[in-house]
């Protein structure tokens, strides 16, 4: 065995081989760790990075031995790997956009939006009031962004865009990411003038955040939405709040 390439090429190829091997092993260990769309991303990344690792391995071995058709093999492996990584990353970005970015609501056909609703409101009561919430959204006939634990309840409503608040990393928005919820609400009302933002998961947010933080988030969101002519509606089970918390919310939100 003798070197067929300069020593610095050997060092270069060894470093790249180690780096590519590490990132391939990183994804390989996560092959069965995730579910749904994220699993698709991990599997694809593992396959295409594995091809790139095989190419680097051939390149490294070629520093010591003559390998027949080495250039053709490397061209094929690197070409498929690069195209595969581009495809995988594009699909992943589209997944993130579909999970985190609400789409603009367009009124079509004979549908006509209802009267504008402006202000900040609270619907307090038991969870049995979910029927009242659904009827309210239907009656408003306005573009409505709903942050909820139950997105399936709103999927059949023409004007509603539900976003799932969940700890599942590959779906929806985590309850600890209050700033992400605020950003998506603002983006939605800018794209849909006169829209409504409905928070139907306050109890869940309070499980993962202290009340002062959640209250500050709601007040900040209110202050951002009202000047834009939008409405903010907060739905809450009053049994989840103590008297002091109820008083604070009622100071900022009008009972609905």
TrEMBL record:
The keyword Magnesium does not apply. This is DUF835 domain-containing protein. The chain crosses the membrane at residues 6-28, 40-61, 73-94. The keyword Signal does not apply. It holds the Pfam family DUF835. Keywords: Membrane, Transmembrane, Transmembrane helix. It comes from the Archaea. Residues 130-253 form the DUF835 domain. The lineage of its organism: Archaea, Methanobacteriati, Methanobacteriota, Thermococci, Thermococcales.
């Amino acid at each position: 065995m003798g070197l067929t390439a300069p020593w610095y090429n050997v060092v270069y190829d060894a470093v790249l081989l180690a780096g590519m091997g590490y990132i391939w092993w990183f994804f390989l260990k996560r092959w069965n760790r995730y579910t749904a769309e994220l699993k698709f991303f991990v599997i694809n990344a593992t396959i295409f990075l594995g091809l790139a690792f095989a190419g680097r391995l051939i390149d490294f071995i070629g520093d010591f031995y003559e390998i027949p058709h080495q250039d053709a093999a490397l061209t094929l492996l690197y070409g498929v790997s690069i195209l595969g990584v581009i495809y995988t990353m594009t699909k992943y970005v589209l997944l993130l956009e579909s999970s985190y970015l609400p789409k603009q609501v367009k009124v079509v056909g004979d549908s006509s939006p209802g009267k504008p609703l402006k202000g900040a409101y609270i619907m307090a009561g038991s969870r049995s009031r979910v029927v009242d919430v659904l009827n309210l959204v239907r009656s408003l006939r306005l573009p409505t962004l709903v942050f909820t634990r139950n997105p399936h309840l709103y999927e059949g409503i023409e004007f509603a865009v539900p976003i799932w608040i969940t700890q599942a990393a590959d779906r929806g928005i985590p309850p600890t990411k209050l700033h992400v919820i605020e950003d998506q609400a603002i983006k939605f009302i800018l794209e849909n003038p006169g829209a409504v933002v409905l928070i139907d998961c306050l109890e869940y947010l309070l499980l993962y955040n202290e009340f002062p933080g959640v209250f500050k988030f709601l007040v900040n969101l209110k202050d951002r939405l009202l000047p834009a002519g939008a409405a903010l509606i907060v739905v809450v089970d009053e049994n989840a709040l103590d008297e002091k918390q109820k008083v604070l919310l009622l100071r900022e939100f009008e009972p609905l």
